[in-house]
Amino acid sequence: MGSSKRVEGTSALKAVLFDAGNTLIYMPRSPEEMLQEVCRQWGVPISPEAARGACRQAERYYARHYLGYRGDQGEFWRRFHAEALRHLGIDDPGGDRSNHLSHVFGRDGVWVAYPEAADVCRQLRSAGLKLGVVSNGSTNTGDLLSQSGLLPFFDVVVASQEVGVQKPDPRIFAVALKRLGVLPPETLFVGDLYDVDILGALAAGISAVLIDRERRRARVDCPVIGNLEELIPLAIDVASEGREPRADCP
């Protein structure tokens, strides 16, 4: 069961925004597992600890560079994976191995939709709601949603790499609202990270719902759901009754 907290207000809900990773889509296999498998195929086996360290090194590169990067996406991800190989001490003078990693991590099936995601999006659209995605991700976020079969449900996809700011900065939400043609009180946001997604949405004047699939958050000051199906009574009932989601998450 979801949180007993309600989303209340006085005017009609018009749009629902979602985070992407671990809200709508997820990786069935961890990056560490995938890196270990590729290295085994190369004949260079690595330990789980080494794989975790290499992935952390690549993520540090991502955090430092992705917002300001405006070049070729293929080159960006080659450099990202080159950082992992450098951490592991694996030679890659021609970039073939980092290019191969980019291909492996970018192929279909690496990211998939949660089982209930498509049906929930379909119900929300049928209720007359506009849908969008606001992601702290690269400009390939739309590609990941397309691979998972979800992209046709969304009117807008706003990625932080595209706009140069990331959640919890409220400006990234403002971009999505402008593109959808809706106001903050007419909008609901769903995300899995309280400090990033929920606080960012609230700072933008948007009501927020935390999705906590592992039931790890005991108490937060907003509605909590365990899966996307639990969003339906919070969103569709609000829309049909003409109530506005409150930004303070009562």
Structural class: alpha/beta
* Count of discrete alpha- or pi-helical segments spanning 4 or more residues: 10
Shape: elongated
How many structurally independent domains?
A: 2
CATH superfamily of the largest domain: HAD superfamily/HAD-like
* Biggest sheet record: 6 strands, parallel
What would the average pLDDT be, to the nearest integer? 90
Spatial order of the strands forming the largest sheet: 5-4-1-6-7-8
Name the CATH class of the largest domain.
Answer: Alpha Beta
Radius of gyration: 19 Å
Return the CATH architecture of the largest domain.
3-Layer(aba) Sandwich
Order of helices and strands: EEHHHHEHEHEHHEHEEH
**Content of β-strand:** 5-15%
Low-confidence stretches: 246-250
Structural features:
44% helix; 6-stranded parallel β-sheet; Rossmann fold; 250 residues; disordered C terminus; alpha/beta; 2 domains; 10 helices; single chain
Outline:
With 250 residues, this protein is of the alpha/beta class. The chain contains ten helices and eight strands.
Write structural notes for this entry.
The structure is a single chain. The protein has 250 residues and is α/β, with parallel strands linked by helices. The protein has 2 domains: 143 residues, HAD superfamily/HAD-like (Rossmann fold, 3-Layer(aba) Sandwich); 76 residues. The strands form 2 sheets. A 6-stranded parallel beta sheet has the order 5-4-1-6-7-8, sandwiched between helices. It has a two-stranded antiparallel ribbon with strand order 2-3. Strand 6, helix 9 and strand 7 form a beta-alpha-beta unit.
